[in-house]
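Contributing new records

If you add data, match the layout below exactly. Sequence lines come first and carry their own label; structure lines follow with theirs. Keep one chain per record. Anything else will be rejected by the validation script.
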Amino acid sequence: MLKRLLAVILTTTLVCTVLAYISYTPLRDRTSDTMYESFGSTFLFYVLATLPIILLSGFLLDFLIGMIINRSSTTLAYVPTVLGYGVYGIVIASLLILLTTKDAFDLPLSFTIAALTAMIYYSLSVVFNRLSQHAH
């Protein structure tokens, strides 16, 4: 449980840092008649928006994919499982977009971010599981 929580926190930090960096406007590129958010406030906004989603969907993903795919300790099991996480990330993004907004979205970008986030979460979970196995 602690390993999953650590994977959620690290995934959220990585994804939100990248998103905040992409949407940040440097001081030299700002115009005087427009209000801009700081990097920290943009990062915090992304954390508050994504942490609950990553937390809930990450634990749900672990449960569902654990039932579907037999997770053995071999490297061969990693590829189908990480792809399963990516597909499920797209499904979650689709549901969230359909249920929460009527705005137009850049769907390929949204689905790519969702899939990569789910894949990063799984990869970090694997790393933390392997590290904890070696520690014992």
